[in-house]
Amino acid sequence: MISVPSSSLQPPSLLCPAADVFAQRAERFRHLATGHSLGSWLTWLAALCQTQQHALDTRKATPHGENLLDDAFGIIRPLAATLDQSPALAGLDDAALRVSLQSAYQYACEITPIANWNIVDLFAAAALQVAGTHHALQQTPADVPQSAHCPCCGAAPVGGILMAGDGKAGVRYLECSLCSSRWHAVRARCTLCDSSGVVNYLGLQGHHPAVQAETCDTCHGYIKLYSQLKDIHVDPVADDLATLALDVLVGEQGFARGAPNLLMHEGEAVLAH
Ligand SMILES: [Zn+2]
Ligand SMILES: [Zn+2]
């Protein structure tokens, strides 16, 4: 019998985002848009993610700065320009863009609502994701403690993900809403209040079996859980926006959403034409 040191059986506590995370997400949005009642919105978000990938690829060679918001500030106008949306930002000075970035960052970290969420806030949030992912890709792997917030950038998770393969099958990670890093979180424990009390799982019958809402009877909050075991291509950002019907269902049962999605705000979609 070969003895394996117990430490090698532990799943890694932190997983870096993939270098092509936005391209993969764009592909997932395109897939989910097919035949979906919100298809045109999801297709537009696919284009936004593709633009984020381009922005990340062009930054890869440069070292990131100390400040996430400063880095994001340099990305927001080129991001909008690539999508032919420069006019949306034309009347705004730099100070206004920085206010938008600060609001989007606070939304990501504390789920603080943004007043009058609009297309500028969406580009600010998308730019923050690029800057955050750029930071996360340059981090050195480290052991991180269990936490409700991202050990890399401090943002709240967009949801949980049950992994497949690589010795991590069935292990739950939380995925950062801002930088897409994933960190290990034990299962059957509420992410929002850390209660090990009653955690239930609700899904949309017959639709999207890989997506469930993990509800907590202690704090009456929920986050969504995405299972790679049921769909290997599941993406916590894209699949979240394709399953808003689940949020309605869970909301009707008295549970409050406890996870930000930076491409959406309080159930409100923004679509530029
Ligand atoms: Zn993060
Ligand atoms: Zn709870």
**What's the main sheet like?**
8 strands, mixed
Helical content class:
25-40%
Any ligands, ions or cofactors bound here, and which?
zinc ion
Described by its quaternary structure, the protein is: single chain
Structural class, from helix and strand content?
alpha+beta
Outline the low-pLDDT stretches. 1-7
What is the tally of helical segments?
A: 8
Mean pLDDT: 90
Radius of gyration: 18 Å
Count of folded domains? 2
The geometry reads as: globular
Distance between the termini: 64 Å
Overview of the molecule:
The chain is of the alpha+beta class and 273 residues long. The protein has two domains: 15-138, no CATH class; 157-257, no CATH class. Helices cover 38% and strands 13% of the residues. Strands 1, 2, 3, 4, 5, 6, 7 and 8 form an eight-stranded mixed β-sheet that branches. A hairpin with a 7-residue loop joins strand 5 (199-203) and strand 6 (211-216). The longest helix is centred in the first third of the chain and has 21 residues, at 39-59. Mean pLDDT is 90; it is low at 1-7.
Brief write-up:
By secondary structure, the chain is α+β, with helices and mostly antiparallel strands. 38% of the residues lie in helices and 13% in strands. Strands 1, 2, 3, 4, 5, 6, 7 and 8 form an eight-stranded mixed β-sheet that branches.
Fold blueprint:
Layout lengths: L13 E2 L5 H13 L5 H21 L8 H15 L3 H5 L3 H17 L8 H19 L19 E6 L9 E5 L5 E3 L14 E5 L7 E6 L4 E7 L10 H5 L1 H9 L3 E2 L16
Parallel strand pairs: 2-7, 7-8
Antiparallel strand pairs: 1-4, 2-3, 3-4, 5-6, 6-7
Helix pairs in contact: 1-2, 2-3, 2-6, 3-5, 3-6, 5-6
